[in-house]
Amino acid sequence: MRLSKKMVLAVLCLVILPLVLLTVSWILLSGGGAAAAAGTVRLLLGLSVLALLLGALLLLRWQANHFSKPFKQLQEAAGLIRDGNLDFELSADADDEFSQLFDSFEEMRLRLKNNAEERLRYEQDNKVLISNISHDLKTPITAIKGYVEGLRDGVASTEEKRAKYLSTIYSKADDMDKLVDQLSFYSLVDSDRIPYHFTRLSARAYFSDCRWDFKEELDAQEFETDYENLVPEEVEMVVDPEQLRRVISNVISNSVKYRDRSKEKSRISFRIRQAGKKILAEIEDNGVGIAPEELPRVFDRFYRSDASRSAVTGGNGIGLSIVKKIMEDHGGRALLKSEPGRGSCMTLELPVYEESAHEQDIDRRR
Ligand SMILES: Nc1ncnc2c1ncn2[C@@H]1O[C@H](COP(=O)(O)OP(=O)(O)OP(=O)(O)O)[C@@H](O)[C@H]1O
Ligand SMILES: [Mg+2]
């Protein structure tokens, strides 16, 4: 604690001065000339009392200043926070016991400010998402209305034309269905309520099944695919098969969406292997790739690269944030490597099931 001038003066008046004056009085009295010294002693005693009074006064003022100023500052700061103003700075004048309290208060203000800014960003992102989804829904609705009018007004005059119109209506309705599904799933992710049903299964068998699930769609998109599964049959993992399929579907849909049309053939390679206690599922494409400066942000919610935003591919930038969340909820992770012009490779890392580790995990959750 630093002593102020007032405090030093108060100590001087309260302790040093009376002590000196009393000592002098005592010396005078014990000197023998009691009668002669009586007047001086009275004066000295009077001065001592005056010094004591002055000291007490200074001490009171010092105390009032020392405590009331920071209290007032804190009171004002609390008032500003109550009124929703978080743009001020609270700093202590002196390095005393209040400075610690001020530091904690300042830390609390900064945290509140960060939370408020994050909430604002989040609300803005949600508004953008709603407007994007409404726009994405409007496109198939307009198309469906157009085709239905064509059927009603007899524009589709032949059986062949009618069948074509109906199949387009079906595919547009399917697009809408997927969009609505994506939106409702996103709200589950957002509130951390993804319904998981974990089961233990063979990694080799699971990924082989997945391969066939996506093969038809990739063939229809004229993708060349190759597949290699090096995981031994007995290696197991604990996953939610449906949610893991969603992860793979999101990754594949990106490879399709961001294919490089200047290349003669678009390709996707699947490689599944075991590395120690991990199962690595790699999905590699020869698409447009991602610029190095954009790569660290692609897992962020609502992030879309500049090129994707200006392209007509559509999307809201939530696919990879869902991938990240589901992989983390599986005790794994998703890693993306990419090179513009060459392509991207997503590695999905999952823990190998181990009896003892699983039991420990259950014990821990209990
Ligand atoms: N395989 C890929 N090739 C090139 N760019 C990719 C690839 N995967 C992701 N990206 C980039 O990462 C961004 C984020 O991907 P993400 O899947 O989260 O969003 P999206 O595909 O734009 O929209 P959504 O998935 O919501 O429909 C994309 O906009 C794109 O720029
Ligand atoms: Mg996507």
Rg over alpha carbons: 39 Å
Cofactors, ions, other ligands:
adenosine-5'-triphosphate, magnesium ion
What proportion of the residues is helical, as a percent range? 55-70%
Report the uncertain regions.
none
Mean pLDDT: 88
Indicate the CATH architecture of the largest domain.
2-Layer Sandwich
Summarize the model shown.
With 366 residues, the chain is an alpha+beta fold. The chain has helices at residues 5-30, 34-82, 97-152, 159-190, 203-220, 241-257, 306-310, 319-329, 355-365, and strands at 199-202, 223-229, 236-239, 266-275, 278-285, 333-339, 343-351.
Structure explained in plain terms:
This protein has 366 residues and is an alpha+beta fold. The protein folds into three domains: 5-85; 122-190, Signal transduction histidine kinase, dimerisation/phosphotransfer (DHp) domain (Helix Hairpins); 199-365, 2-Layer Sandwich (Heat Shock Protein 90), CATH 3.30.565.10. Helix content is 61%, strand content 13%. It has nine helices and seven strands. It has helices spanning 5-30, 34-82, 97-152, 159-190, 203-220, 241-257, 306-310, 319-329, 355-365; strands at residues 199-202, 223-229, 236-239, 266-275, 278-285, 333-339, 343-351. Strands 2-4-5-7-6 form a five-stranded mixed β-sheet, covered by helices on one side. The chain has a two-stranded antiparallel ribbon with strand order 1-3. α3 packs antiparallel against α4. The protein binds adenosine-5'-triphosphate and magnesium ion.
